[in-house]
Structures are given as structure tokens and as C-alpha cells.
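Please check these two lines:
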Amino acid sequence: METRKLGKTDIEITPLIFGTWQAGKSGWVGIEDQDVIDAMRAALDAGITTFDTAEVYGNGYSEELVGKALGERRDRTVLATKVFANHLKPDQVIEACENSLRRLQTDVIDLYQIHWPSGAFKSEIVPMVETMGAMNQLKEQGKIRAIGVSNFSTAQLVETMAYGRIDSLQPPYSLFWRGVEAELLPYCIENEVTLLAYSSLAQGLLTGKFGPDHQFPKEDVRSKNKLFQPPLYGRAQAALAQLRPIADRHHTTLGNLALAWLIAQPQTTAIVGARNVEQAKENAQAGAISLSAADLVEIDAISRTVTDYLPDDPVMWNFSE
């Protein structure tokens, strides 16, 4: 699989990135450890070398599984993880990084990201100059190679860049969730910040595998996803029906069509999870799809039958419900 430079670094990442939120199990159901470990290894064998996790995914459990799956193959992988909003004081950042290094079974984290801005989820407000001081220190010590942020607004990203180089932004971005295109994507293009799009399949909605009446159990995070609620869910189903003939033309799945569209956007890579070997192998095939200019225009128009009706709130989930 081709690789792309991460921001202004010399780190080479794949346009498809294996996401491991599900490996932490918290907020997901029906996840088996060995299946996810096998999926990670299958993804690597299929050419996906970049893996994204976070300390908050299962309170470190996802990182442990990543370390278990890839520890002996570290020389072939690029590892990205995140420090959560409640660990943004300088000493907390340092401690969180050390814990992540241990769980990941590595001496260096390729990309270390601030998962949510200070104050998110009722966390304590910490001045960015303090947090970035610790991040820069870790970089100088060689414990991390690059710094990224996740779920930041344009203003927050600009402020953070004043205190050190940011090479990536991780926002929700997919055919059915395109708020980043208004301000964030143009800023990232101008400043050579790589976009690592999460929920790139709209948490599975873009695969077309969920029927019109599908209901998730309350413990599944997707039960709170705005896209799975009426009337947006109905619009999404109608859009999927229009996208299916395009996928058929390319002899691919709806999910891989959505991923191919996403990695065709400027400065954009796609994080996509898998819970078993079959999904991992299927996702990797999206890297070989070449969409024409006409395809992109047609897909864009179908996409907007959903995204034009999204709420202004950039958070994809109603966590309070």
C-alpha cells in the first residue's frame, strides 16, 4: 500500500489506519480479544502499517491488545495513541505517556495526540502552554516522534500551534459527517497538518449492513449516535441505496467506496476499525480503488442529501442521553 508523510515529519503512514476503539471493549459489544489481535495482524499483512489507539479505550486495555498483537512486529508499524482530557497537566501528560509506552510494548510512540481539548467531559481547564510544554519535552526526549490533536476546533488548533508543531488532527469525518470541510480541512491543507479521519464509516452505517429498523443495545455507543436516530437514519438509508450502483461499478462494497472517497480528499487519511480478520482484509482493499472526477462529483451530491441536514454541534453522539 502507498504511504504518505505525516504532516511535516519524515514518518510514513498508510492512507488507511487501523482504529482500535473497539479493542477496549467499553462501549462495544461482541468483541473478542483474539479476534481483534488476529485482525490487527491481518491488517498489517495486508499493507496497513499504521495503528491508532488511546489510553481511554477500555482504560488502557486497547493499548495492551495493540502491544500484544504488534509488539514483535514493531519495526513494521507506526503507532499512534492519545492522552485524555483529564490528564493534561504536565506531570499527568508525562505519566500517561509512560503508561502508554509500557502497554504498547515500545520505547517510542510515533504520534502522541491530545484526545479532547482541556475542559471536555467536565475535565479541569489546563492552559495549553502547560500541556504543550510537556508534549514538547517528550518529543525532545525521543519518547514521541510527532504531536497531534483530536476533536479540536480551528481556534483550538491555531492556539496549540503557537506552542509547538502539530502534525495531525483527528476529527470525525466521513461521507455522512463533513463538518471539518468548512474551516478545519482548509487550515490543515494550508499548514500541512494531516487529517486522520475517525468514524470514517460512520460507525458502520456506511457499510450498508444495518437495515431500516436496526436497534443497538443501550450499552453500544452507536445507540447514542445522531446518525442512527430518525430522521437522519432514514436519509442515510436512502443515500446508501443511491451509492450502491457506484460501488457495483467498481466491484467493491459500500464501505470501501466510502473509504476510497475519504482518502481521495486532500490531506486526508481514514481510520477504520475491524473486529475480525475478514473485516480487516476487506478494509485494506479500499486502498486500491481509484475514483474518477465524475465519481467524486456523483458521490458528493448523494452525500449532501444527509449532511445538509446535520446539526451544527460537531459531536457525533448524544452522550447525555
